[in-house]
Amino acid sequence: MAKQALILIDIQNDYFPQGKWPLAGVEAAADKAQQLLQVFRQAGDAIIHVRHEFTSDEAPFFTPGSEGAHLHPKVLNENDEPVVLKHFVNAFRQTNLRELLEQRSITDLVVVGSMSHMCIDAVVRAAADLGYTVTVIHDACATRDLEFNGKTIPAAQVHDAYMASLAFGYASVVSADEFLQA
Question: Residue ranges of the Isochorismatase-like domain (predicted)?
Fold first, then answer.
């Protein structure tokens, strides 16, 4: 029987409007993540929070020990919900994430958080490569405008491109409402 876990990726203070690296639509995405978090808590399903800290005080955001690197109040961990500390984009790299999933016999991951084009993309691809069945809740993820070759790519286009790519071969990509109705 499939056993699922909610994985909340980098929903941290620096990504919010008063932080060092604000994302487009982060409040709405965090509200959806909070909604899913409550549903998983009520169901007694596994929940794992992931928090990023860079290893240098010179980092543009998520500096070690800073308030910006803390989990956002909307999605703080409770009781026995572990928080995985990572220093790389991929939440599986040099962390105990896989061990935590194996200890709980998890087969299916539901992924929410930030940034769509970096840490969400990396963890989803790695999880699929490791054999997990992955669902991404697209409206519970956020990103920001990017620049390439002198052009600005709006956050909504960045997000949509990454969600389309993940949906092509790595994950089921659905809205929070679709997931909760299923």
Answer: 5-148
